[in-house]
């Protein structure tokens, strides 16, 4: 059987175009001329007999074939980095970086403390945390841009293994003394009478909220949207605005007493999970394995 191999330079140039969105942007990052990048992309497309990008006036948009190749290229990079780290360990220079992707809110609050506690026992391990919308975290794990993902999920994900999880309770968050605070629990229909502060439309939670509200024939019309939870929480401090989020995402604000919450009585909204994810088949670096064991056994738990 004929072996099929990609040139490492071509893959590196290709991934840089994917990341920057243009040939010129990739050339600037790589410190080469644009024609060199174009030649590498054209060579890959000729070899694969498929278009890797859709060319637009504002840049390059990766095709489905390009996405498949990008996933492969990132796996190659991740495997190479793991191999170098393991060889370094054999030579007594064991330094390994664990790449973690986490959802806004709970991951950004809880994970850095766990990193520091783990490094107290394993000082040679480094961590890189990228904070994203929940839906994008899984894609980072799938494409080998992250070893571990910590996120909110409402369904099984292709190529993703769930290492451990817990139910994600969705709550209505508001200022102390809010008119809705007299209720022990709330229904989604009660919120439409008050200003809403919600995640942006593309977020995983916002899509779930829009789907759930449509079942009750109500429209959630936010007075304020943001991709930053802190901005949403600050917006709630004056007036009668309400937001919806996983309880863990607001744990810092709730523990401090700056904000309060009430459970939302809806099975669909509360059907999701907070998950620690890895790729179902890609081997993890040794340091990532050890970190997963650590957060499973550490007290207090991660979530």
From TrEMBL:
Keyword set includes Oxidoreductase: no
A Pfam family assignment: HTH_1
One function term, GO molecular function aspect: DNA-binding transcription factor activity
Keyword annotations of the record: DNA-binding, Transcription, Transcription regulation
Domain HTH lysR-type: 6-63
Gene3D superfamilies tied to this protein: 3.40.190.290, Winged helix-like DNA-binding domain superfamily/Winged helix DNA-binding domain (1.10.10.10)
A GO CC term assigned to this protein in UniProt: cytosol
Aminoacyl-tRNA synthetase listed as a keyword: no
InterPro entries the UniProt entry points to: HTH-type_LysR_regulators (IPR050950), LysR_HTH_N (IPR000847), LysR_subst-bd (IPR005119), WH-like_DNA-bd_sf (IPR036388), WH_DNA-bd_sf (IPR036390)
Annotated family: Belongs to the LysR transcriptional regulatory family.
Descriptive protein name: HTH-type transcriptional regulator ArgP
Upper lineage: Bacteria, Pseudomonadati, Pseudomonadota, Betaproteobacteria, Burkholderiales
């Amino acid at each position: 059987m004929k072996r099929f191999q990609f040139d490492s330079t071509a893959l590196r140039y290709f991934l840089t175009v994917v990341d920057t969105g243009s040939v010129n942007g990739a050339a600037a990052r790589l410190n080469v001329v644009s024609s060199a990048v174009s030649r590498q992309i054209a060579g890959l497309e000729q070899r694969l007999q498929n278009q890797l990008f859709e060319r637009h006036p504002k840049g390059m948009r990766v095709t489905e074939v390009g996405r498949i190749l990008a996933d492969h290229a990132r796996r190659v990079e991740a495997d190479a980095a793991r191999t170098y780290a393991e060889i370094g360990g054999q030579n007594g220079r064991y330094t390994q970086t664990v790449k973690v992707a986490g959802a806004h809110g709970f991951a950004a609050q809880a994970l850095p403390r766990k990193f520091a506690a783990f490094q107290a026992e394993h000082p040679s391990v480094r961590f890189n945390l990228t904070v994203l919308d929940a839906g994008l975290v899984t894609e980072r794990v799938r494409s080998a841009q992250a070893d571990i993902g910590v996120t909110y999920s409402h369904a099984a994900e292709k190529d993703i293994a769930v290492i451990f999880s817990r139910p994600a309770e969705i709550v209505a968050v508001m200022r102390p003394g809010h008119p809705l605070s007299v209720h022990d629990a709330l229904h989604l229909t009660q919120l439409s009478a008050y200003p809403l502060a919600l995640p942006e439309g593309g977020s995983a939670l916002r899509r779930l909220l829009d789907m759930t509200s449509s079942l009750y024939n109500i429209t959630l019309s936010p007075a304020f949207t943001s991709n930053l939870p802190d901005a949403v929480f600050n917006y709630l401090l004056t007036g009668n605005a309400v937001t919806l989020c996983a309880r863990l995402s607001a744990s810092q604000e709730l523990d401090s007493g700056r904000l309060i919450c009430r459970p939302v009585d809806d099975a669909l909204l509360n059907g999701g999970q907070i998950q620690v994810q890895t790729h179902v088949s890609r081997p993890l670096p040794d340091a990532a394995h050890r970190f997963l064991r650590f957060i499973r056994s550490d007290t207090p738990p991660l979530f």
